[in-house]
Amino acid sequence: MNMNMHPEFLLNQIQSPKDLKKLSIDELTQLASEIRTLILEKDAKIGGHLSPDLGIVELTIAYHYVFDAPEDKIIWDISHQTYPHKMLTGRAFAWLDPDKYEDVTPYTNPEESPYDYFALGHTSASIALATGMAKARDLRGGNENIMALIGDGSMTGGVAFEGLNNAAIEKHNLVVVLNDNQWSIDENVGGMVKLLADLRASNGQAQNNPFKAMGFDYRYEAKGNDIASMIKAFEAVKDVDHPILLHVNTLKGKGYEPALQSPGTHHWVAPFNLEDDSPKFEAPAGPTANSVALDVIKDAIDQGQKVLAINAAIPGAFGLSDIKQNYPDNYVDVGIAEQESISFAAGAVKNGVTPVVFQNSTFLQRAFDQLSHDVAANELPIVMFVSASINGGSKTHLGNFDQVMISNLPNWIYLAPTTLAEEKAMLTWALNQKDNPVAIKKPARQIPVDGPVLDDYAKPAYQVKLGKDIAILALGSMYHQVGVPAAKELGATVVNPVSANILDTKTLDELAASHRIIITLEDNAVDGGFGQKVASYLGDRDDILVKNYGALREYTDQVSGKELLDRYHLTPKNIVNDAKVLLEK
Amino acid sequence: MNMNMHPEFLLNQIQSPKDLKKLSIDELTQLASEIRTLILEKDAKIGGHLSPDLGIVELTIAYHYVFDAPEDKIIWDISHQTYPHKMLTGRAFAWLDPDKYEDVTPYTNPEESPYDYFALGHTSASIALATGMAKARDLRGGNENIMALIGDGSMTGGVAFEGLNNAAIEKHNLVVVLNDNQWSIDENVGGMVKLLADLRASNGQAQNNPFKAMGFDYRYEAKGNDIASMIKAFEAVKDVDHPILLHVNTLKGKGYEPALQSPGTHHWVAPFNLEDDSPKFEAPAGPTANSVALDVIKDAIDQGQKVLAINAAIPGAFGLSDIKQNYPDNYVDVGIAEQESISFAAGAVKNGVTPVVFQNSTFLQRAFDQLSHDVAANELPIVMFVSASINGGSKTHLGNFDQVMISNLPNWIYLAPTTLAEEKAMLTWALNQKDNPVAIKKPARQIPVDGPVLDDYAKPAYQVKLGKDIAILALGSMYHQVGVPAAKELGATVVNPVSANILDTKTLDELAASHRIIITLEDNAVDGGFGQKVASYLGDRDDILVKNYGALREYTDQVSGKELLDRYHLTPKNIVNDAKVLLEK
Question: Which residues does the UniProt record annotate as the domain Transketolase-like pyrimidine-binding (chains A, B) (predicted)?
């Protein structure tokens, strides 16, 4: 029942921030050490965000010492750095007791605690949210402190600037804490780096202070990892009657030497051995979706094509360090700035080079307008490699809406490979055409290496293996995982539709004429996706039933991918059962 | 054949920017005067953007005098201020000859001229596009000048900041021209206003210079409407080998006194009388979609509800000056910052007030992520009033994708009123519920004032007028415009589905069982919209045909709304004809 690994920890006495206020600086320092130990122990066991949390321990303790949460409100941006906050607000059990490691979610979560205000998994939004909270407080006649805490990495996102612009003219209390640990997910980029470096180097006295320029009161605290200093810094901004920006210097990864030596690889960690920092699991050998894509790009560059590999602060998700190190002229990281990543690509292709943008579906949501206005309406042939699938994890990080964003826009061709060979052929074709923006859905699941390919993916023909009665159109990752085994058991036809949004209407007509049922499977939300286009196209025929499978219209939070696939009937067993019921109709 | 109204104008001799370079300053000044005359004459006749173009005449002349377009490249942000640019690059005929007024589009347009690089109708993108162009130039080994010209209003958009952040570290030539005319579409807002005012007041010498802080070289030119000064200013930044920001002070509306007296109403103008600035057409009397919405909000405020009316720099589109003037505490304009507008609303509702965000579908594209992550995933009941429809105009301003963005996200309820009474009931209900984010589609067409309403719009029941064989589900504006007259002629059933994304499956089942054909009509793109959801839901029945009507997946450019409705068969005549064909099946 009680698996508390550290019953002796002072932390056990902290049930809420109120309990903090009784402690001495020495005790608070002891608490910081305990929190650090717990972050490392849990991350080593199950993985998680590491360096950001190690860096913000003292700041968090000081915040809760000085302010009166939950009445005073703070928005942590991004909330993957809230392990210390969670431990101090009644949720330490999820670090003390390994059996309860999964009982607390990794981001702020209003359903979990009154000390959390938003589920916040996309960066840079905190200041905008805080400006709204402050305005509402003013209208209500409230007087609580409203605070946004934002990292220097998050500051590169445009909505952070939109927030600053509006926060600067707030007439009452509003505090922006800039947690400057001198890193984004990877190295931070852009003019912001110099700007913050100058402020740090001058102890906040640098001549050109953009925050003062906008009208903020400004303070600098060099000792962000010293509890006494941070308490003073927070006390000085508590209950102010105007917008103020408190710039705090902290050390990302503090207290764990490997993280200090190699910050880029310790932002987020998979399970590792605490004694020597070695990973617990080896990466599988052989080609992967990433390695295939990178090989195509490197080959193109080696053959003289002017290619730019572009990403928005997530090189690790695609193994892009390979390009960064070996082809630095062909590599661009624009920071946490998805809008810029797409507009930048639009500018680049217009001026004669071939951009390939690496995107994560959940963050790509920030650039929907750029996909439409800057790229598609301008008919610019950028190439995009999109990591998207039905996956477990936080409701702030679902990767389901890729089709909503891409498939419904004019001009875009969205391709979904079923094998690594197909991925290679699609990407190679995309790099060599100049007619359309092309997105390729990164295979999210285990798929075969080899398979048939086409020469031209502009209007791809469906790849059909004939069976009878039922035709299963299984897009991308769903083809080998669900479509092929289900069809085999049913004796049904199985189809690789190749594209998520360009219908092969000729083959569809033939399939409709020769089958009783068409089933569509896709690794994303049904609404606005592939299957609904098929249903709409075949709607005016009365000789065919169409059934669409994919994610339901819901946010799921920390539900496993396996459970979700089962819930959405995206398993061979479910499809076989459902198909048999449909055949009875 | 030759309807040139000003054959004597010097402008007739300017076929390309090359011809400018031969002129004296006096002749260039004469040219400026002619261009201003032409802007006023054409705008008075057919309407258009006015003040921004009047303010940028001298700057544009100087640009083309100094730089060598189209090899040197400039991106005008936003491109509604390019009338002078168009006149100097071979397109003066569209101002000189009233018969050719419509022959040139109102935004930059690469299909129209090699001097235009992007169709740019959404603000703030220029610096991001330019960073991509500059990087591509570097990779190609080119050496042309790359320039982004951006207004002070456009500077409030987050992607402008993302652009600045990346532009500041460009290693070669990149010039950002900040055209500071001290206005956005309405009054500019935020900390940026003070920042720029300080720089202007100090002739560019203010202590806190954010551009220098980021690493830009910085220049200030106070006399942006003086050709000789602007020539010098541009010559000084031509061929520089590093990023530079040239801050130029210009006068919005220069040369037209009414525009100087009332800048807010002269940003864009409908046809007017040049002699006294009076409008040529009176606004119709009686309630409108805007007035109904504003009345609901004012009533709620008067009754003590804490309501915030929020918009992103387009108060004029919704008549919000009424709220701004009479309820200033309840009014927020966040600038051209759609992301902020939605996040701000999320923060406000979380802290106890009721936000109503006024959005234009085309600009709302910037905030897709906020609709999902900040609002829907956080289950926050913000209210949104969305101007969206199939309309003519520039391909950069299509309002078709509202359903793509809203209808496919979990938690959102998207309602489409068919009468003004229904609009009022929906908005009143939305303001008083706390369960879901609710969007209401602003009726774009003439609709009746009166009609039946529901008490609860959470799961609205379809409103059915029974006929036979065919059921026409006509959403929102399509109901009275197309659905009712077509159904009358066909003797068909006509249905008001009330919601764009919440299906009344019980009624749908009944309709499917009692009809042979279901037709869906919607005032937006078919892909990702209402009809495809109906087709998908009814896909597994073989006793009903479904046919979806709406906009095709295409960008149209300056095609009239009337022509588009006909193209998409969204007229009673088309639907009657199509229905008769379907009945023969």
Answer: 284-449
β strands within A123-173, DSSP E? 146-151
Q: Where are the alpha helices (DSSP H) in B333-463?
A: 338-350, 361-364, 368-369, 402-406, 420-431
CA angle, B53 then A380 then B361, to 5°: 60
Query: Tell me, what's the ipTM?
Result: 0.98
Residue A366 in contact with partner chain B when CB distance is under 8 A: yes
Q: Give the model's pLDDT for residue B111.
A: 96
Task: Encode pLDDT of B59-72 as tens digits.
Answer: 999 999 999 999 99
> Tell me: the pLDDT tens digits for B524-560?
999 999 999 999 999 999 899 999 999 999 999 999 9
Tell me the chain B residues in contact with residue A401 when contact means C-beta distances shorter than 8 Å.
372, 408-409
Whether A270 is covered by a domain: the verdict is no
pLDDT at A184: 81
pLDDT of residue B73: 98
Phi first, then psi: give them for residue A220, nearest 5 degrees: -125, 135
pLDDT for the residue A283: 82
- Quickly state the pLDDT bin for B314 (edges 50, 70, 90): very high
Residue B1 has pLDDT above 80, yes or no: no
Structure tokens at A533: 């286009």
pLDDT < 50 stretches in chain A: none
B residues 517-576 closer than 8 Å to A (CB) = 525-528, 531-533, 535-536, 538-548, 553-555
Residue A368: name the closest of B437, B313, B367, B122 by CA: B367
- How far is A185 from A232, CA to CA, in rounded Å? 29
Phi, psi of B36 (to 5 degrees): -60, -45
> Is there a domain that residue B76 lies in?
yes
Single pTM value for the model: 0.98
Whole-number pLDDT of residue A61: 98
In a domain? residue A9: no
Same domain for A471 and A415: no
Structure tokens at B546: 């479904």
Domain membership of residue A97 (yes or no) is no
- Write down which residue in A408, A442, A476 finishes a domain: A442
Domain extent for A396: 289-442
Using alpha carbons, select from A555, A577, A580, A581 the residue that is nearest to residue A566: A577
Interface membership of B136 toward A (CB under 8 Å): yes
Looking at the fold, whether B154 and B31 belong to one and the same domain comes out as: yes
- How far apart, in Å, are the Cα atoms of A20 and each of A26, A223, A237, A315? 12, 20, 19, 39
A349/A409 same-domain check: yes
Beta-strand ranges (E) seen in B233-342 are 243-249, 268-269, 307-311, 331-333
Regarding whether A435 and A346 lie in a shared domain, the answer is yes
Task: Look at A346 and B118 and tell me if their CB atoms are within 8 Å.
Answer: yes
Radius of gyration of chain B (CA): 26
Query: Distance (Å) from the C-alpha of residue B141 to the closest C-alpha of chain A?
Result: 11
The reply to whether A219 and A70 lie within a common domain is: yes
How far apart are alpha carbons A480 and A494 in whole angstroms? 10
- In this structure, what DSSP letter does residue B106 have? S
Res A2: pLDDT = 66
Cα angle A355, A361, A366 (rounded to 5 degrees) comes to 80
Cα(A334)–Cα(A341) distance, integer angstroms: 6
What is the pLDDT, as a whole number, of residue B2?
65
Number of domains in chain A: 3
B529 DSSP 8-state letter: S
B47 vs A: CB within 8 A: no
